[in-house]
Amino acid sequence: MGDLIYWDYEGNRVPEESQALANLVQEKTGYQIEGSSGHGGFKDWAQIRDNPIPSLTLETGSVACPMPVTEFTHVWDCNQEVWAAVAASVQ
Q: Cα(12)–Cα(3) distance, rounded to whole angstroms?
């Protein structure tokens, strides 16, 4: 939770691309951008694998899970343009 974007990981092989992706998503969501000190997430693996890809983790909602139905409108409003923006940015 927290309306956050985690974009980096120790050993990230695509830091510039991952940060650019985070910036793009931040423009659409308004979420705060953070580094990441967690371990073992999909983003982490995607950034350090042999064929790394830019990646991030979106933490949506302002309350802990399970998220109440009252949060869904906020999450949708913040994120509805993300997929299209990311798809349009891929070359």
A: 22
Question: How far is the C-alpha of 70 from the C-alpha of 73, rounded, in Å?
Answer: 7
Give the Å distances, CA to CA, from 48 to 5, 22, 69, 76. Answer: 18, 17, 36, 30
The answer, as to whether pTM is greater than 0.85, is: yes
Task: List the pLDDT tens digit at each of the 91 positions of the chain.
Answer: 899 999 999 999 999 999 999 999 999 999 999 987 777 789 999 999 999 999 999 999 888 888 899 999 999 999 999 999 999 998 7
Give the count of beta carbons closer than 10 Å to the beta carbon of residue 12: 22
Radius of gyration of the chain (CA): 13
**Cβ neighbours of residue 20 under 8 Å, at least 6 residues apart?**
54
